[in-house]
From TrEMBL:
The keyword Membrane applies. It comes from Idiomarina xiamenensis 10-D-4. This is Invasion gene expression up-regulator SirB. GO terms for cellular component: plasma membrane. The keyword Transmembrane helix applies.
Length: 121
């Protein structure tokens, strides 16, 4: 059940990121809605809590399990570049951040589904 919650929060995170980036590119007034500023933080908090719960429940930890270390590094990479995508003022930097963030999501997806480390294996 924890895994299903976690995957649900992952899906919501990706959808919200894509939606917010789309609105940013269209200069949509939706970005100014209060819920758009609050809901992603709530969801990401629940995502983090579910990840920690899974780690504790399964008894596997980053720096002891190579693929989980990769996921932690990938998460940090995604967060950094998603922030660049959504906060940069210039379109070039927004798109750069978006594309790199999507690359990190691909790495995270691969590592999560294969349980094979790419970087620290």
């Amino acid at each position: 059940m924890l895994k299903h919650f976690h995957l649900t929060f992952v899906g919501i995170t990706v959808i919200l990121f894509l939606l917010r980036f789309f609105w940013l590119q269209r200069q949509s007034p939706m970005l100014q809605k209060k819920w758009v500023k609050i809901v992603p933080h709530i969801n990401d908090t629940l995502l983090l809590i579910s990840a920690i719960a899974l780690i504790v429940y399964l008894g596997i930890y980053p720096f002891q399990t190579a693929w989980l270390t990769d996921k932690l590094v990938g998460l940090v990479g995604y967060i950094v570049f998603a922030a660049i995508a959504l906060k940069a003022r210039q379109k070039l930097w927004q798109w750069f951040g978006f594309l790199v963030a999507m690359g990190w999501l691909a790495v995270l997806f691969h590592v999560a589904t294969s349980k094979q480390a790419i970087m620290f294996g």
